[in-house]
C-alpha cells in the first residue's frame, strides 16, 4: 500500500466511520474523522453549525479542511457525506490519496441511522424515501469522485475494510 491517504466517501450510514477505524487499525494509519475535526475546530457540533451558520458555511469548512490535509500522508479520512459534492474537494482528495466510495441500500442506511439523530440534511424527514431521494441526488458526484467502490450491505466491517485495503494496495 502506498503512503497516500485513503479517503472514504459515501452517504451517511454507509459505514465510513466504522470502516475507517478498522482500516486504520489494520494498517497502522492515523484515522481522521472529518466531521469530528471540523466540529472540534469550530467548538460546536455539526448540527449546531448547520443551524447557526448554515450548510454553505459548513461546506466551506470541509473544503478548507481538505486543503490543510493535502500535505499529510498515511491517513485514513472518514469524510462527511457531502464532502464529495464539490469538485475542489474531490481534487484535493485525489491530489493526496485514493478515494473509496462505500455504498449501501437506502433501507440499510435507514436501519443504521434512524435512531442516531444528528443528521441535519435529513432533519424532519428520516425515512427510506427521503434517504433514497438524497442518495439519488448525490450518486453521480460520488461515482465521479471515486477511484474504487466497495459495497457494505450484508458484510462485516472487517470484510469491507479488507476490500478497501486491497483496492488501495492495487492503486
Describe the structure.
The chain is 54% helix and 14% strand. The protein has 171 residues and is of the alpha/beta class. Strands 2-3-1-4-5 form a five-stranded parallel β-sheet, sandwiched between helices. Helix 1 crosses helix 8, helix 3 crosses helix 4 and helix 4 packs parallel to helix 5. The longest helix is centred in the last third of the chain and has 18 residues. The chain starts with a strand and ends with a helix. The mean pLDDT is 88.
Short description, anyone?
The protein is α/β, with parallel strands linked by helices and 171 residues long. 54% of the residues lie in helices and 14% in strands.
Strand adjacency order, main sheet: 2-3-1-4-5
One letter per element, helices H and strands E, the order comes to: EHEHHHEHEHHEH
Q: What is the helix content?
A: 40-55%
Low-confidence blocks of residues = none
Work out the number of β strands: 5
- Which secondary-structure class do the elements indicate? alpha/beta
Q: Name the average pLDDT.
A: 88
Rough outline: globular
Q: Report the sheet with the most strands, covering strand number, pairing sense and barrel closure.
A: 5 strands, parallel
- Indicate the radius of gyration in whole angstroms: 15 Å
Strand content: 5-15%
Distance separating the two termini: 8 Å
Count of DSSP H/I helices: 8
Amino acid at each position: 500500500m502506498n503512503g497516500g491517504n485513503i479517503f472514504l466517501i459515501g452517504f451517511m450510514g454507509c459505514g465510513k466511520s466504522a470502516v475507517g477505524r478498522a482500516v486504520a487499525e489494520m494498517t497502522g494509519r492515523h484515522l481522521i474523522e472529518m466531521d469530528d475535526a471540523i466540529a472540534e475546530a469550530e467548538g460546536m457540533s455539526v448540527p449546531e453549525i448547520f443551524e447557526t451558520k448554515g450548510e454553505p458555511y459548513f461546506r466551506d469548512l470541509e473544503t478548507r479542511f481538505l486543503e490543510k490535509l493535502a500535505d499529510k500522508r498515511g491517513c485514513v479520512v472518514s469524510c462527511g457525506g457531502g464532502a464529495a459534492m464539490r469538485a475542489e474537494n474531490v481534487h484535493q482528495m485525489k491530489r493526496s490519496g485514493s478515494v473509496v466510495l462505500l455504498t449501501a441500500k437506502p433501507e440499510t442506511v435507514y436501519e443504521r441511522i434512524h435512531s442516531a439523530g444528528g443528521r441535519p440534511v435529513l432533519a424532519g424527514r428520516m425515512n427510506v424515501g427521503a434517504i433514497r431521494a438524497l442518495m439519488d441526488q448525490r450518486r453521480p458526484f460520488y461515482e465521479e469522485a471515486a477511484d474504487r467502490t466497495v459495497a457494505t450491505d450484508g458484510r462485516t466491517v472487517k470484510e469491507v475494510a479488507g476490500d478497501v485495503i486491497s483496492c488501495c494496495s492495487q492503486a
